[in-house]
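User: I'll paste a sequence; please echo it back and then give the predicted structure.

Assistant: Echoing your sequence first, then the prediction.
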Amino acid sequence: YTKVDAFDTDSDTFVDVTDMEISITTTQVNSRIVIFGHLALSATSNYSWGGWHVRLTRDGTALKVGTDTADGGNDEQGAIGGLTRSDPLHATHPAPFQEVDVPTVASGTTLVYKVQVAATHMFTGGLCRVYVNRSATPNSSVSGVGVSTITIMEVAA
């Protein structure tokens, strides 16, 4: 799927990106599902620390991609990555993602995968707004736009 319209949020908890949802019906027991794509992101942060985190969910549950046990846990569980400082406000930044999911499900099960984003608000005390498919400073002669994609495929168990 290719998303061409814009989306934005200032939520510091994960929210679904509109239209970045894809489903697949398994054809085998315990298949592996490969999900990949990218978001074109930008953020306002008043030239201070701020940005975004990205994650994938399956049927509403975050896919785990890592844990941080050094300080007691990962604040953004399931986060694939993100930008913690958004300097050039006139461009979109690529945020690629790729995950291999191994759901324990029967053949013929439909799985729904979604992309989520969360805004980060470090040190500013103010809100950061995250934009998908457009720059944080639209309508400028130097503003950029982008497209975002998500692809899914089943791989034999």
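The chain has a mean pLDDT of 81. The longest strand covers residues 32-44.
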